[in-house]
Amino acid sequence: MGKLLRPNREVGIAGYGAYVPMYRIKAEEIERVWEVSDPPIQEKSVPGLDEDAITIGIEAARNALKRAQIDPKLIRAVWFGTESKPYAVKPSGTVVAAAIGATPDVNAADFEFACKAGTEAIQAAIGFVGSGMADYAMAIGADTSQGRPGDHLEFTASAGGAAYILAPKSSETVAYFEASYSYVTDTPDFWRRQHEHYPRHGNRFTGEPAYFHQILSAAKTLMEELNYSPGDFDYAVFHQPNVKFPLTVAEILGIPREKVLPGLLSGIIGNTYSGATLVGVSAVLDIAKPGDRILWVSFGSGAGSDAFSLVVQDAIEEKRDLAPRTMDYVNRKKYLDYALYAKHRGKYIM
């Protein structure tokens, strides 16, 4: 038995959609307040006062429905991946399902695995549809991530998300999954205990033992099992806590920068955590041509990675403009100073 995860029937993406809040704060503004040098990004997104992970998920889900062009009642699962749930005890998936008109004949649940909660939901949706239990399942990754004031994470922790409606592969799907693979270890690189508002990170674990080990292991195994080389992929999207890490992964794997840059958005919207790779892939689908192959590798602290090989289909040409493109949201900006940013994020600095 091979290492790859493959369903009984081929699964594709019927519709996808992203959402990024319009508010931004420049890294130089955070740098000015905290006198921290060498910021890892240029600027990041900030949720509005009336936005949270659920509202972001709803906007993304509605965009996915516009492209899928299906009755929401046909969706039999709404799975929501996030690490910034508005409620400690109350599912976010039920709120999204109700907002898009998918209730009551639907399975709803929230997924958690740090920044790869969204791709965990994708994996589950592939299995749900691929087994024949359902013809449509929705997977969402969205976050309004947290960073302690003055901490290095405050430069990157941002807001955004994307939603994908999975269906049996057909002429109506915009892309299909060739295979996927998950790689997981117990690595204490980043965590937040219950009742703690901000996460903590074990610095010596965050790079080589966590991010790089998981992503490289997942990517290499997927390619080896498929008998592919980096040259077989037209685009690559890696989890993007910053700009440097995914570009380093690409260099190690032998993937040219130009294949990574279209989906590398963290430099201008920050790290959207569970939404990071999902938003990146949505940006690539907005410009990809039929036949293009996308390498998609997420990462979640704790730690693990999900890797996918995704092939773009003809239907992308007619469906991509049925909803706003990802860069439409990225380019829509309103800048905040640090005081307004702190108000938006509910930061109380003692």
Structure explained in plain terms:
- The chain is α/β, with parallel strands linked by helices.
- Helix content is 31%, strand content 24%.
- It contains eleven helices and 14 strands.
- The strands form three sheets. A nine-stranded mixed beta sheet has the order 5-4-6-7-1-8-13-12-11, with helices on both faces. A three-stranded mixed beta sheet has the order 3-2-14.
- Helix 2 crosses helix 3 and helix 5 packs parallel to helix 6.
- 52% of the residues are buried.
Provide a brief overview of the structure.
With 350 residues, the chain is of the alpha/beta class. Helix content is 31%, strand content 24%. The mean pLDDT is 94.
Count of helix runs:
11
Tell me the helix content.
25-40%
Structural class per helix/strand content?
alpha/beta
Please state roughly what percent of the residues sit in beta strands, choosing from under 5%, 5-15%, 15-25%, 25-35%, 35-45% or over 45%.
Answer: 15-25%
- Main sheet strand line-up: 5-4-6-7-1-8-13-12-11
- Report mean pLDDT, rounded to a whole number: 94
Q: How would you sum up the major sheet?
A: 9 strands, mixed
- Spans of at least 5 consecutive residues with low confidence: none
Q: What kind of oligomer do you see?
A: single chain
Radius of gyration: 19 Å
Order of helices and strands: EEHEHEHEHEEEEEHEHHHEEHHEH
Q: Please give the number of β-strands.
A: 14
Shape: globular
Distance from first to last alpha carbon: 56 Å
How would you summarize the topology of this molecule?
Layout: E1 11-19, E2 23-26, H1 27-34, E3 43-46, H2 53-68, E4 77-81, H3 93-99, E5 107-111, H4 117-130, E6 137-144, E7 159-168, E8 175-187, E9 190-191, E10 200-201, H5 203-226, E11 235-238, H6 244-253, H7 266-269, H8 276-285, E12 293-297, E13 302-312, H9 316-319, H10 326-330, E14 334-335, H11 338-345
Parallel strand pairs: 2-14, 4-5, 4-6, 11-12
Antiparallel strand pairs: 1-7, 1-8, 2-3, 6-7, 8-13, 9-10, 12-13
